C-alpha cells in the first residue's frame, strides 16, 4: 500500500477519450479539479479507446507509458479523469509504483478539504467510507493464523474482515447522526412553511458563481473562490422581495457531470433544501463554452434528487466576461420571466433578478375570500393550522367569513383533500 498523497504534490493527469458519448469526460475539468485539490500537474497523458481495458483501464501499452512518465517526472500520484474499479486502481499502482486516484477519489478529497460544518464533515466521511469499503486490501494476512492445531490457532477473524466490520459500524453511527441533523432541519423547514416564507434555492454547475451571487444579494460573507466545489455546506439567509415579503435564499453545493452516486446519496440531506424549494435559481456561467452541457448535467442531478418538477429561473451570470451581453430579463410568450442576464461580480443586473423573483413568487400566492358553513368548520381549523387566515368574522347564519393568503401549492393540496369542496366557498 502507498501513503495517501498530500495536497500540493506533483501529479500526472490521465485522460482517455472513449467512442461512446456517455463515458466521455472533460480534460479541462480535470485540470480544474486537480487545481482545486491543491495538486501541481506535471503533465497530461491522453489516449483513445473504444472501451475500458479490464485490467489497466487505459490498456497495457498506455499503462507502461504512464509508468515511464511518472519515473521521468518523479511524480507522486497519478490521477485518472474516470472512475476506476478497485482492481484497476491496484494494478496501475503496481506498475507505476505510486498512488493512483480516480475522478471520484479526487472529488471526495476536494470535498474533505471544503467541509466546514458538522453535517458537511459527516456527509463527506460517509461518502469516503462507502468509497474505500470496496478498496480494502489484505495488508495483514501474513500475521494471521487460522489453521488448526497447537500454536496455529488465529483470532478467528482476518484483518480484512475486521476492517469491514469497523467500517460498517462507523457508517451506521454516521447515518444515525445525519438522521438527527435532518430532523432538526425539517423542524426549521416546517416553521418556515407555517410562516408562509417561500424558499429560493441556488443551483448550478460548480464554479458558476452561485456563492458570489449569494453574497451580493445577502451580504452573507460566504466563502467564494474561482475554483470547483468552493461551497459544500448549505447556507440560508433571509431576503426581502417586493410584493412577496420575506423569503429564504439557500446556497447549495455545485453540481458536476457524472457526479458519483455515493456523493449524491451522502448529500441528500443538504440537497433537501433544493428538493423542498418553491423556486430554483439555476445559475449558469454564460462565459463558459460548455454552458449548454453544464445545464444538461444539472438537470440530470435535479432529476436524480427528484427536484426536476420545481419551477426554475435561469440566471446567466458573468456577462462582464462577454463583449455584447447586457443585463436583461428574457420572457416567454405569456410574459413570464425565464432568464435573467447579470454579473454578480460587477454588481450589474441584480435589481432585475429581484424583479423576476417578485413576479414569479408573487404568482405562487393564493388569495381568496371564503364563506364556510358551520357544518364544514373543520376546513377553518385546517386553514388556521397552515397560518393562512388573514381575517376571520361570522355572519348572521353563523358562517365563517375568512380572507386567506397562502402558497398556491398548499391551496391546491387543500383543494385536493377537500375533493374540490373548498371551491364552493369562494366569494367572487
From TrEMBL:
Query: May I ask which residue range the UniProt record assigns to the signal sequence?
Result: none
- Where is the major localization of this protein? cytoplasm
- Which Gene3D superfamilies does this one have? 6.10.250.2860, GTPase HflX, N-terminal domain, P-loop containing nucleotide triphosphate hydrolases
Query: Which keywords appear in this protein's UniProt record, sorted alphabetically?
Result: Cytoplasm, GTP-binding, Magnesium, Metal-binding, Nucleotide-binding
Domain called Hflx-type G: residue spans: 198-365
Q: Which InterPro entries match?
A: EFG_III/V (IPR035647), G_HFLX_dom (IPR030394), GTP-bd (IPR006073), GTP-bd_M (IPR032305), GTPase_HflX (IPR016496), GTPase_HflX_N (IPR025121), GTPase_HflX_N_sf (IPR042108), P-loop_NTPase (IPR027417)
Give cofactor(s), names only. Answer: Mg(2+)
Cellular compartments annotated: Cytoplasm
Family from the record: Belongs to the TRAFAC class OBG-HflX-like GTPase superfamily. HflX GTPase family.
Say what the protein does: GTPase that associates with the 50S ribosomal subunit and may have a role during protein synthesis or ribosome biogenesis.
Subunit field text? Monomer. Associates with the 50S ribosomal subunit.
- UniProt name for this protein: GTPase HflX
The species this protein was found in: Ferrimonas lipolytica
Amino acid at each position: 500500500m502507498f501513503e495517501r498523497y498530500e495536497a500540493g504534490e506533483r501529479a500526472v493527469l490521465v485522460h482517455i477519450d472513449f467512442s461512446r458519448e456517455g463515458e466521455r469526460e472533460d480534460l479541462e475539468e480535470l485540470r480544474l479539479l486537480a487545481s482545486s485539490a491543491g495538486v501541481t500537474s506535471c503533465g497530461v497523458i491522453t489516449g483513445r479507446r473504444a472501451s475500458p481495458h479490464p485490467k489497466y483501464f487505459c490498456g497495457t501499452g498506455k499503462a507502461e507509458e504512464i509508468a515511464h512518465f511518472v519515473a521521468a517526472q518523479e511524480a507522486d500520484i497519478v490521477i485518472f479523469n474516470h472512475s476506476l474499479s478497485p482492481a484497476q486502481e491496484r494494478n496501475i499502482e503496481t506498475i507505476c509504483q505510486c498512488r493512483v486516484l480516480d475522478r471520484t477519489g479526487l472529488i471526495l478529497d476536494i470535498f474533505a478539504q471544503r467541509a466546514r460544518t458538522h453535517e458537511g464533515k459527516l456527509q463527506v466521511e460517509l461518502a469516503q467510507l462507502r468509497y474505500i469499503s470496496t478498496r480494502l486490501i489484505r495488508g495483514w494476512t501474513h500475521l494471521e493464523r487460522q489453521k488448526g492445531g497447537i500454536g496455529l490457532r488465529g483470532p478467528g477473524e482476518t484483518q480484512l474482515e475486521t476492517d469491514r466490520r469497523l467500517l460498517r459500524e462507523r457508517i451506521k453511527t454516521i447515518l444515525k447522526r445525519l438522521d438527527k441533523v435532518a430532523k432538526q432541519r425539517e423542524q426549521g423547514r416546517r416553521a418556515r412553511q407555517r410562516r408562509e416564507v417561500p424558499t429560493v434555492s441556488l443551483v448550478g454547475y460548480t464554479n458558476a458563481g452561485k456563492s458570489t451571487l449569494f453574497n451580493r444579494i445577502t451580504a452573507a460573507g460566504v466563502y467564494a473562490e474561482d475554483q470547483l466545489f468552493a461551497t459544500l455546506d448549505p447556507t440560508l439567509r433571509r431576503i426581502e422581495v417586493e410584493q412577496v415579503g420575506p423569503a429564504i435564499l439557500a446556497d447549495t453545493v455545485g453540481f458536476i457531470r457524472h457526479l458519483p452516486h455515493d456523493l449524491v446519496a451522502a448529500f441528500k440531506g443538504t440537497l433537501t433544501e433544493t428538493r423542498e424549494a418553491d423556486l430554483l435559481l439555476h445559475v449558469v456561467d454564460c462565459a463558459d463554452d460548455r454552458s449548454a452541457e453544464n445545464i444538461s448535467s444539472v438537470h440530470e442531478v435535479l432529476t436524480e434528487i427528484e427536484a426536476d418538477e420545481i419551477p426554475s429561473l435561469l440566471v446567466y451570470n458573468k456577462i462582464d466576461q462577454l463583449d455584447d451581453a447586457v443585463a436583461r430579463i428574457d420572457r416567454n410568450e405569456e410574459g413570464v420571466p425565464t432568464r435573467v442576464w447579470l454579473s454578480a461580480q460587477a454588481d450589474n443586473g441584480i435589481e432585475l433578478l429581484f424583479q423576476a423573483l417578485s413576479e414569479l413568487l408573487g404568482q405562487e400566492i393564493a388569495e381568496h375570500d371564503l364563506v364556510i358553513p358551520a357544518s364544514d368548520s373543520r376546513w377553518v381549523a385546517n386553514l388556521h393550522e397552515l397560518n393562512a387566515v388573514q381575517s376571520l368574522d361570522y355572519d348572521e347564519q353563523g358562517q365563517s367569513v375568512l380572507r386567506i393568503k397562502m402558497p398556491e401549492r398548499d391551496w391546491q393540496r387543500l383543494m385536493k383533500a377537500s375533493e374540490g369542496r373548498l371551491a364552493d366557498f369562494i366569494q367572487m
